[in-house]
Amino acid sequence: METVWSFLASVPVWLYIVIAIAVIIALRDILQKRHTIQHNFPLVGHFRYMIETIGPELRQYIVANNREELPFNRRQRSWIYASSKKENNYQGFGTDQNMQEAGYVLIKPSMLPYRVDSTHSHHVKNGNDPHHYTIPSAKVIGKYHGRKRPYRPRSVVNVSAMSYGSLSARAIESLNKGSFKFGNYHNTGEGGLSPYHKYGADVVFNMGTSYFGVRDDDGNFVMEKLVKLMQNNPAVRMIELKLSQGAKPGKGGVLPASKITAEIAEIRGVPIGKDVVSPPYHSAFSDVRGMVDFIEAMAAATGLPVGIKSAVGKTEMWEELADIMVETGKGPDFITIDGGEGGTGAAPPSFADHVSLPLVFAFSTVYKIFQKHNLNDKITFIASGKLGLPAQAVMAFAMGADIINVAREAMLSIGCIQAQTCHTNRCPTGIATNNKWLESGIDPALKSERFNNYMKTLAKEIIEITHASGYEHPCQFGMADIDISMGDNNRTITLADNYGYLKTVVPFPGINALLECDHLGGRDIPGEKTA
């Protein structure tokens, strides 16, 4: 017995404390009824929840292979990261993909690539940056409807709608400064025009159902506020009326009072201390004809091109819109089709996974409707939904997109690690959070340059694929230029046969002529190269 007491006396006090804590936790586990695992396996059951918590990180960094993850796999993310840092983004020893897999995209090269002759702007502009290629839009937005300030975007690749509030101030600032450097436009998202959108880039003012920044105290749209906002901000070149988005079409949202700072309240025109509800529908109109009238009223009051953004599902209202446009000669100057795979808006899994068509089906559906009504040459089509990689972008152009917008790819270029915690306000990179400490890790000077590098690389590879296919500009791609593997006896099918239409030919006078346009946006970049 004396030996036992001697042993107990020799045990350190801290060990008794540890044992006591373990016993208390075990008793707590046994007595609680909320978690079955902890009740049945006291103490050790906690390890199950700990491992579950770090499971996503383990899978992302250790378990998953290079092509396995969604929404962007490791190979795709690595290409964006390397491009943004001006590092080697090549891969060696050939492709690691199964080119016979169903749905695999196969771009057809020409036997003789497009020759850039000595009179081309490529050679005329003596630049100091051999990697900056300018690819202007082949269409002038708003020209057909006679808007006072029509607009030809300097870049066919631009930043999609992401609001200040959803993204941090420094993230928005980085994207806008980078957009100014590259020459693309920057969509505000429906959260209003913030000071962080005002660093020189062309801006598209996105307006949702809450009319943030142009509303009264009851949330109703006020035309006078819109006109004043546009007059005070000449960098705004277009207005985008958001009907829905791919991440959560037909679903509204709530901006909690806890997230409404004095700055956000001023930008959005909402009261401090109260939840702000964004309904799933617009109060300024209730049907398609009313929407067309609303578009025309905004265009007449501001002089700017006005378009719509929507996910796609049922087609009856798209048919009605086309009919009204033929009947009246009025309607949107551009249509942004957002694929169901879009993801910068946090959403319930039921919406994110199942509601609305993926981009290829959504775009082809709407494009065919307007083609049937001979309207495609009068509208600029903008596509969004995982298009920030060269091959996917080229496929969108071949299907009829005049412009593409990128969102998550832009986030990746400024440091996003695909942690998928955007909805928690705890984004570890400071991009999708209002947490000032996390946001402080973003250096806008550095991140804007990385975004600029990513855009330059994306444009460069798009134009190199374009030249390899025998064309000068991506607008010249057609549905016969791309095959899709059917995954059946090594058979392929063209886009035309797969989706049942041929792309409407876009008039193209040459890159030099596009750059001489009076309505060209962006800025003249010293030393820029054109396609």
Automatic annotation (TrEMBL):
<dbReference type="GO" id="GO:0006537">
    <property type="term" value="P:glutamate biosynthetic process"/>
</dbReference>
<feature type="domain" description="Glutamate synthase">
    <location>
        <begin position="97"/>
        <end position="471"/>
    </location>
</feature>
<comment type="similarity">
    <text>Belongs to the glutamate synthase family.</text>
</comment>
<feature type="transmembrane region" description="Helical">
    <location>
        <begin position="6"/>
        <end position="27"/>
    </location>
</feature>
<dbReference type="InterPro" id="IPR024188">
    <property type="entry name" value="GltB"/>
</dbReference>
<keyword id="KW-0812">Transmembrane</keyword>
<protein>
    <submittedName>
        <fullName>Glutamate synthase domain-containing protein 2</fullName>
    </submittedName>
</protein>
<dbReference type="Pfam" id="PF01645">
    <property type="entry name" value="Glu_synthase"/>
</dbReference>
<dbReference type="GO" id="GO:0015930">
    <property type="term" value="F:glutamate synthase activity"/>
</dbReference>
<keyword id="KW-1133">Transmembrane helix</keyword>
<dbReference type="InterPro" id="IPR002932">
    <property type="entry name" value="Glu_synthdom"/>
</dbReference>
<keyword id="KW-0472">Membrane</keyword>
<dbReference type="InterPro" id="IPR013785">
    <property type="entry name" value="Aldolase_TIM"/>
</dbReference>
